[in-house]
Design a protein that fits this description.
Number of helices: 7
Shape: elongated
CATH architecture of the largest domain: 3-Layer(aba) Sandwich
CATH class of the largest domain: Alpha Beta
Structural class: alpha+beta
Radius of gyration: 23 Å
Number of domains: 2
CATH superfamily of the largest domain: Glutaredoxin
CATH topology of the largest domain: Glutaredoxin
Distance between the termini: 44 Å
Oligomer: single chain
Strand order of the largest sheet: 7-9-8-10-11
Order of helices and strands: HEEEEEEHEEHEHHHEEH
Length: 238
Amino acid sequence: MTLFKSILTGALLALSLGATAQEAAIRKNLTERLPNLPKIDEIKQAPMAGLYEVRVNGSEIFYTDAEGNYLLQGHLIDTKARRNLTEERVDKLNAVAFDALPLKDAFTIVRGNGKRKMAVFEDPNCGYCKRFERDMQKVSDVTVYMFLYPILSADSGEKSKNIWCAKDKAKVWQDLMVRDQPVSSASCDTSALGRNIEFGKKYRITGTPTVIFADGSRVPGAISAREVEKYLAEAKVP
């Protein structure tokens, strides 16, 4: 048994060293041949035999062969399981742990018992956000952590400041987004908005609305109330 373990350990070590050397060769070839390619974060074997995943910019995926002679950009589809493996991988890379969210820089909207949790990054001038907010009126028993994320215009920043400084942030926000009521001027410490922008840059939140659920799953765009319910049901409350 001891001999068998030694042989097995040696074989695994050889495979590991071989994989490391292969990845190093791919990295060298791609870097030398494609100087404009962003810095490579990681190289690993892809689910398809003979294919390697090349990850850049945190969550951007390319594919290459074992020598780095060819570079592919696109989606890898598992036709048997009918799964978009590239999309699943990117979703996993973009996930944001719920406990990593700076909740002190958000205000809450509580509906029903508030047991379920989700966070949303939104711009007050975003039309898709308004559509999302109006559809969210159908979702109950949830606590929404609302992060003001003014990225569309200077006016977005001004409105966000007035909302953040309002006595009842949740009411003023919903009055604007759901009922098209103007926001009154207000003043206070608005450094939270700057922190939200920095957080969004760090986690590559490039559009609004962006929704993050309790299990870390992240969904961009104005998804419907039905889709929100689906994600809430699948997410585990921390």
